[in-house]
Design a protein that fits this description.
about 240 residues; alpha/beta; eleven-stranded mixed β-sheet; 7 helices; 11 strands
Amino acid sequence: MSLVGIVTALRAEAKCITPRRLPFNEMVRLREGTAIWVCGMGSDAARQAAVGLRDQGVSALVSFGVAGALDETLRPGDLVLPERIHGEYLHPVSMEWRARIMHHLPQHVRVTGGTLATSYRVLTSEIEKRAFSEQFGACAVDMESGAIAEIAANAGIPFVAIRAITDPVEFSPPPTLLGAVYPDGSVNAIHLLSLVLRRSITITTLMRLAPSMRAACATLLSVVKHADTELGGTFSHQY
């Protein structure tokens, strides 16, 4: 029996797959054909998760979650199914697997391809995003897919990335916000409140971030609902 290993950085991403409260930084079997690992943000964390899943016998790897837009036509909620991943090296995805996922998706999901690039830090301005896009020729950016693609390539197993856009090119999470976010994406409420009280971050900014994340998660939920068989089996998620 094949076993698909899904790597997510954030708990919010994992909740698009299962309503279960998952342990952090360990493999969990969701059903016979699917395992998931919530690893936290960044390439090092993603590499550790991918290696852990590989060592426990997965036969394919998925990078699942959100991404930032580098192409100005991409908006929150758009789905990126890249043909290639630019990390330390350039890695292709399994085009056959990607095509099967696309076949299952409903027409309302706006899908783009191209190159997804991995950054080793959060890009927090339009200038940084545009420079990164020019350097790597990428349409979107995340912090994990490059490491996962590398482990899959070295192991000789199929890999795909499924990434929904949160922030467009012209808007990014402010650097001050990062200190109020734990590695798994959960928020340190006390720290966040102190940032708001000190006016280091505005309510307007927070109100803009929230709908973008909801749009991305709605798209990821739709992928899981319609293409669940490509992720190892049918999930008992509530929609």
